[in-house]
Amino acid sequence: MVVGVFGKARAWARRHSMVMDALTASPLALLCVVTAPMLTASRLAPDGFPQRCLVLLVSAVLVVPLLWRRRYPVQVFAIVALAAFAQWLAAFPVILGDFAVLVAMFAVASRCSTRWAVAAGLIAELGLLLAMLRWSPDVARAFPSSSVFVIAIWIAGIYLNTRRRYVESLVERAERAERERDQQARIAAAAERARIARELHDVVAHNVSVMVVQADGAAYAIDREPEQARRAVQAISSTGRQALAEMRRLVGVLRQDAGSPAEEYAPQPGVAQLDELIKQVTASGLPTRFEVSGTPRALPEGEQLAIYRIVQEALTNALKHGGPGARANVDVRYTYGEVELEISDDGRGAAAPRGEGGHGLIGMRERAAMYGGVVEAAPRPGGGFRVRARIPLGAAA
User: Fold this and answer.
1) Which positions fall inside the Histidine kinase domain (predicted)?
2) Which of 16, 70, 123, 213 is the most exposed place for a label (fewest CB within 10 A)?
3) Least confident of 87-91, 252-256, 367-371, 389-393
4) pLDDT mean over 79-87
């Protein structure tokens, strides 16, 4: 609570710098007014009203510029120093208002560069020496003790300047760290959106392609083979439910990130779900052979998802562009240091019409690159299309 009060007080002082300068300079001005009669009685005999007015006038010339010492510290110090020098040239005795020189010097030392601070300190010392030479009977003894007082005020200003710069650097560093943190959060959010976009693309592209193929088959067989049309409609229904379930899971992740409680959804598919994927594709009209060679290894979930999506995207493309009578092969080989995927079909290959606006191959390459792998996709020389992917084992771990 105390820290908060002091923080608000500092903020108010920064917004009303001139008011603070007036408050800090007012005690010196009040002392000048109070001591004017005593100074005129002791040093400007005979005492009288004109002498008092002269003291007050000189004091005003020295003290009033202090109201702007925070905004224009060098200019204020120059005005006060010139006024004090004119006072010395006119042989006007030292008055309480001459302390304004030290106040202005402190403002320069606490707010300006080291060059200006040193210049202000030297000028103040020179003014002190000139005053001692004219009005002090023992300069050798009085000047060192008075000089220590001036140097102490100068050092206090330098310390305050150093401390303020240090605090400003800390504030700047904290603001920069906050900006970097926000930037990292935006980058992470963008990466998460890209990941969700890839997931949605794979889910929608695969399942919609299966549904389109089944719907075309049902429309063709609805009059001649009602039973086959019924099975196709059932496959459409099952595929639609699966697509909705996967999209609900992805939307659940977004809702969970937003802070609202998400429902429990099925885990992300992995290598173990490849059998179900092959059966679904086969039932959709693309007979597919699935073979696993080598010793299966335990893989991180993210890497398993990447393998699943690559196979799914390759089979989706074969289903869409392979043409009637096409067949596909999926080979998963576990070698010593990586997993090799090969998805091929004997469909139209290079003769298939090129899709517009598709991102399937890009998504496959991005998924493989996340784990240090590569994807090669090209038509086969004898017809058909082949996708090859190599992903290092356990690269994510």
Assistant:
1) 203-395
2) 16
3) 252-256
4) 87
